[in-house]
Amino acid sequence: GPYIYLWYEYLWGLGRTLKKRYNSSKRVQTLAQNIVDQTVGVAFFFPIYFYVYELIYALCSLRVPSIAIATANMQNELTSVIVMQYKVWLIVNWINFTYVPEKLRVLVSNIVAVFWNAFLSMRMT
């Protein structure tokens, strides 16, 4: 969605800046994009995901959302989710940033994200 598009715009800009300012290789650009995505991106995305999931799940269950439940779920699941995230997204992003044309990268990420979100949903229930 829009978040992914904006995030990729930022990462592409990072790659272009590294190329223009430091004449960096594609490998260095991809490494930098992956590091930023897997640190800053993960730190931003996962807390939001757990709280939004609790909000939607609570509304669908006709109950009041609970910050305590979302926090407990995050504390219980975050480590294993991040480990799996590194196993999946490091490879996907390396391929995506290295070989996929820029205009198709969001599409590739969204296709993988369908399966990734199914995994996250299974972890949360």
Summarize the structure.
With 125 residues, this protein is mainly alpha-helical. The protein has helices at 2-22, 26-60, 67-99, 105-124. The longest helix is centred in the middle third of the chain and has 35 residues, at 26-60.
Radius of gyration: 16 Å
> What string, H for helix and E for strand, traces the elements in order?
HHHH
Portion of residues in helices?
over 70%
**What's the overall average pLDDT, rounded?**
93
**Largest sheet features:** none
Quaternary class:
single chain
Terminal CA distance reads: 24 Å
The fraction of residues in strands falls at under 5%
Bulk shape:
elongated
Structural class: mainly alpha
pLDDT < 50 stretches: none
Q: Give the helix tally.
A: 4
What's the number of extended β-strand segments? Answer: 0
Layout of strands and helices, then pairs:
Elements: H1 2-22, H2 26-60, H3 67-99, H4 105-124
